[in-house]
Amino acid sequence: MYDVYEIRKQFPMLDGNKKMQGKPLVFLDNASTTLKPQCVIDATNRYYAEMTANSHRGDYDLCYFMDVEVAKAREAIAKFVNSEVNEVVFTSGDTEALNLVAYGYALKYLKEGDGILISEAEHASNSLPWFRIAELTKCSIYFINTDGRITVGQVEKSLNKHPNIKLVSIAHVGNVLGYRVDVKAVAKLCHRHNALICIDGAQSVPHLKTDFKDLDIDFLTFSAHKMCGPTGIGALVAKEKLLNDMDPFITGGGMNVSFKNDGTYLLLEAPAKFEAGTLNLAGIMGFRAAVEFLSSIGMENIEEHEKELHAYLLDKMGNNEDVIIYNKDNDGSILTFNKKGVFAQDEATLLNSKGIAVRSGQHCAKMIDRLLGTPATVRMSTYLYTTKEEIDVFVENLLNGGDILDAYFND
To answer: I need a surface site. Which of 57, 309, 365, 383 has the fewest CB within 10 A?
Structure first.
C-alpha cells in the first residue's frame, strides 16, 4: 500500500485551496476524468517552455529531441501494458482508438452476414462505431444477454448462437456498474470461435495491472486523462499482424513514404501509418509522465486501495432504505445509485452544493436503462488519491440531504 496523504501532496487540485460552492472540493467523478499530479503538469509544460518543435519534421536539434521524447513515451506505454513498442499507436483518446479499430479493421474485413458482439452496458464509444460499421457493411450487431455483469458463459452462448460473429468488443470494466470481465478467458473463447476481441480499457487500464500479452487480446484501447494524464491523448494497442493488415482512417503528412500524381502512394509501417499530421506532443510527454507516476505507486497498490475504499463506503452506508444501489457487488471504484424520490440530476446538484463532484445521467451508456429499470443514475467513483474522510463527507451528505429544491428553499 502507500500513504494516500503523501500522494495527495503531488496534486495541485488537492492542496486544500480548491473550493466548489464555497466548500472544500471532494472529487468523486474519476470515472469521467482524473486529477493531474505536478509531474504530469510539468512534463506537459516542458514541451511548450523548452521543447517546442514538431516531430519527424526537421533536421535541427529540437526536432530530434522530440523524436526521442515520442519514442520514450511509446516505450513507457508499451512497458506499462506489456506490449511490443511497435504495437502502440497514439490516438486522441479511447474514442478515436475504438474508431480506428472500427474503420481500420472492421470496415475492411467484415461483410454482410458477419456479426459483431457487444453488450447493452457499453459506452457510446464502444457502441456507435459498430452501429456505423453495420450500416456500411450490412453486418449484424448482436448483444450479450446479461444483467450487467458479463460472464464467460454468457459470451459463449452468444458465440454458439451466432457462429457468424467475427469481432467481440466489450469493456474490461463497465463505466456504469464497474463490473470486471474475465478478459483472458473470454479472449481464449473468442479465438476458439475464430473471432477477434477488442477490449475497451478506459476504466481498467487506470486501475488494474494490464498485461496485453498475457490476456492475449487483439485490440486494447484507453485514454490518458482517466489515468492522471492529459486530455486529448490515448492509445490503441494491437497485435502487430493486425496493425499491418489494417488501413488508416486518417491520412496526411507524416504517415507516408511517398505519393505521386498518378495516385499511387506508399505508407510507412505501423504504428506510424496511423499517426497522420502533427501529434499531440505535449500530451504524449504528459502521457509518459502519467504511466511512470502510476508505475511508481504500483498498480496492485492502487487496486487494493480502491477495494478498501469500496468496502469502507458500503459499511458507512449500511442498509439505508432511502438509497438504491445498483452495483453493491461491483469490483472496485464505481458506485451507481439513486436516492428514492429524487431525480438523479437533482441529487448530483445537491451534492455539488456541498462541494462534492459526482456524475448523473446515463453516463454515455444509453442502452443500459433497460437493465437498470431507470432512465438515469448517480455515479460516484474513487481513485488512488481518494480518502476515507472524503467518503465520510459524501455519505453524510447523501444520507442526510433531501432534494436540491428542499435545500434551496430551506436556505
So the answer is: 57
Task: Return the CATH fold of 4-30+298-410.
Answer: Aspartate Aminotransferase, domain 1 (3.90.1150)
Write out the CATH class of domain 41-296: alpha beta
R_g (Cα) of the chain, nearest Å: 22
pLDDT tens for 114-152 read 999 999 999 999 999 999 999 999 999 999 999 889 999
Domain ranges of the chain: 4-30+298-410, 41-296
Calculate mean pLDDT across residues 103-107: 98
The percentage of the chain sitting over the pLDDT mark of 90, rounded to a whole number, equals 93
- What's the half-sphere exposure (Cβ side, CA atoms, 13 Å) at 254? 15
Distances in whole angstroms, Cα of residue 80 to Cα of each of 73, 186, 211, 227, 311: 10, 22, 8, 12, 28
**Whole-number pLDDT of residue 148:** 87
Here the cell at position 389 is 474522510
Distant-in-sequence, close-in-space partners of 304: CB < 8 Å, separation ≥ 6? 1
Omega before 271 within 30 of 0, i.e. cis: yes
Which residue among the candidates 190, 198, 228, 364 is catalytic per the annotation? 364
> pTM here?
0.96
Is 39 an annotated catalytic residue? Answer: no
